[in-house]
Specification:
This protein is α+β, with helices and mostly antiparallel strands. 29% of the residues lie in helices and 24% in strands. The chain contains ten helices and 20 strands. Strands 1-2-3-4-7-5-6 form a seven-stranded mixed beta sheet, covered by helices on one side. Strands 11, 13, 14, 15, 16 and 20 form a six-stranded antiparallel beta sheet that branches.
């Protein structure tokens, strides 16, 4: 355990020294099952000590939230029971942004009063790095910060739809996974935590990523607090780091502060704002790609709509020049053929005669059969214009589905918005037969091809036809299949299939090493031409 973590571990001054001191690497808690390995922080507000431990029975690492306190203190025992109740409810919640709760131990049920603990929340261990370590060196780039918070906001939105409070308003409870997503690694919401606290936490995490400072009470000593104005208002991130886009800076402050009419109070509103950030970033990258003015938007992910019009104008100009060049080449080639015909014509003729309508004379010698003609190549299958589905939903016959709130992004035509599966520790079909997206068309179409953009390489996909929106898997029919590769993948159907419902069914996820997940940016459905 490094010096910084040792200092953090010693921050809970109101907890008995004997109790805190006894929580050291090597100690075994939970009826002799979990051996403490390293401490990753202390949430002093609830005397919650965050540890990585080894499960001696299942031979795997786990994340422990240890509730430290005096068992004879009735108020401390009551608050601990409330935290454990909330953790028990959270154990039924599944999302890639939250570590799965494996067990909840209480006094008399897994722990004894002699251990100096009031309860233990056991969760799966999250590989990756500490959020505190991430911002210790320097703030995160605005675009990356927006993406990180976006993934966490999706978890909050889904939890709130199920009436659950996650309790992520402490940075040491979060970890950054190897694929760049933030995850609540140490679940266990405080007894008094509310849905509003989760939303404020999203703003505080965004503020932390942009500035390296924590803007809520009760943060760890290793992170400096956010500065305040003379009016006791939070200083916007843009004033601390000038390269932070104005709207992103405003989003962080409006989410954290309670006063005023411009506050943001739901995770759904945060997701909408972060989607706009992604769109603006795409515009900026496009301007840079076509040689836009480097002085405009330099060092930020923000720009105005005026340069976008310039980009469109440049594209139209480039297209016009290309068409003109092609037309010129065609005319010159036609003129060259005419000159050749003139010089090869009959010298006795009064002038060259060009008969473009007459077929050329056969060069086959008389009395010999005509030479066999070469067979024409088979025509390529023709497709019509893409047909946009009327609706899309996650299809999972065995449950609620993965990231249902993001299903719409798979047909919005934007490369920077994605639907993704949950992250699994085992590959399909070990955990379940698969998961996918079912699309509904307003009228039946005769589907010929499905194009998958921005898919995770290594994913295996089946295209299935269905007769209803939520059919049993056995009632669907496989009409095409393919393996996704980087970029765009076209999956042709064995033969054009008519239907109103089609399912993009994932039978093998991308990823490896107990981190299996697939992402799809966009789906395009092409009917037979």
């Amino acid at each position: 355990m490094d010096t910084r973590r040792s200092e953090q571990a010693g921050g809970a001054n109101h907890v008995g020294k004997a109790q805190v001191g006894s929580l050291a690497p090597g100690r075994v808690v939970g009826d002799g099952r979990y051996r403490l390995l390293a401490q990753f922080g202390v949430d002093e507000r609830g005397d919650a000590h965050l540890w990585r431990a080894r499960d001696g029975q299942l031979k795997r690492d786990v994340a422990l939230t240890l509730l430290v306190g005096d068992p004879v203190d009735p108020e401390a025992a009551r608050l601990a029971r409330r935290t454990l109740e909330r953790a028990t409810h959270a154990s039924k919640f599944g999302h890639g942004g939250v570590a799965r709760v494996l067990d909840v131990l209480a006094l008399g049920s897994g722990i004894t009063s002699s251990e100096g603990l009031l309860g233990v929340v056991v969760a799966e261990w999250t590989k990756g790095s500490d959020l505190v370590d991430l911002v210790a060196q320097r703030p995160v780039a605005p675009a990356a910060a927006a993406r990180m918070v976006q993934a966490l906001a999706e978890a909050v939105e889904q939890a709130h739809q199920n009436g659950l409070v996650l309790g992520l308003d402490h940075p040491q409870r979060l970890r950054l996974t190897p694929n760049g997503a933030l995850k609540l690694a140490f679940p266990g919401p405080l007894p008094e935590a509310t849905l509003r606290d989760d939303v404020k936490a999203l703003g505080a995490v965004l503020y932390l990523l942009l500035t390296g400072r924590w803007a809520l009470p009760g943060g760890p000593p290793a992170i400096p607090p956010a500065p305040l104005s003379p009016q006791n208002r939070i200083i916007p991130p843009r004033q601390l780091v000038p390269t932070v886009p104005a709207d992103l800076s405003s989003l962080a402050v409006r989410t954290i502060e309670d006063g005023g009419n411009g506050g943001i109070r739901t995770s759904a509103a945060i997701l909408r704002m972060l989607d706009q950030v992604a769109e603006e970033e795409e515009r900026t990258q496009l301007i840079k790609a076509v040689g836009g003015d480097p002085a405009e938007g330099e060092g930020t992910v923000w720009t105005t709509k005026k340069p976008v019009k310039d980009v469109a104008r440049r594209r139209k100009l480039a297209l016009g020049v290309t068409v003109l060049v092609v037309a010129t080449v065609v005319i010159l080639a036609w003129g060259g053929l005419m000159l050749i015909n003139v010089f090869q014509g009959d010298s006795k003729a009064s002038g060259p005669t060009i008969n473009v309508a007459a077929p050329p004379a056969s060069s086959q010698p008389a009395g010999q059969p005509p030479a066999p003609s070469q067979p024409a190549p088979p025509p390529s299958p023709t497709v019509g214009a893409a047909v946009k589905p009327q609706a899309v939903a996650v299809y999972n016959p065995e449950g609620k589905g993965d990231n249902t709130a993001r299903a719409k992004y798979a047909i919005d035509g934007k490369a920077d918005t994605q639907w993704r599966t949950e992250q699994y520790k085992q590959q399909f079909p070990a955990v379940k037969p698969g998961v996918g997206l079912v699309v509904t068309f307003k009228d039946p179409i005769t589907l010929s091809q499905v194009q998958v953009s921005g898919g995770t390489a290594g994913t295996k996909v089946e295209i299935r036809s269905a007769t209803e929106k939520n059919p049993d898997l056995a009632d669907t029919k496989v009409v095409g299949n393919g393996d996704l590769k980087d970029g765009d993948t076209t999956i042709p159907l064995a033969q054009p299939t008519q239907g109103e419902y089609f399912i993009v069914w994932i039978t093998q996820l991308g990823g490896a090493d107990e981190e299996f997940q697939t992402e799809i940016a966009d789906l395009t459905f092409l009917p037979a031409g």
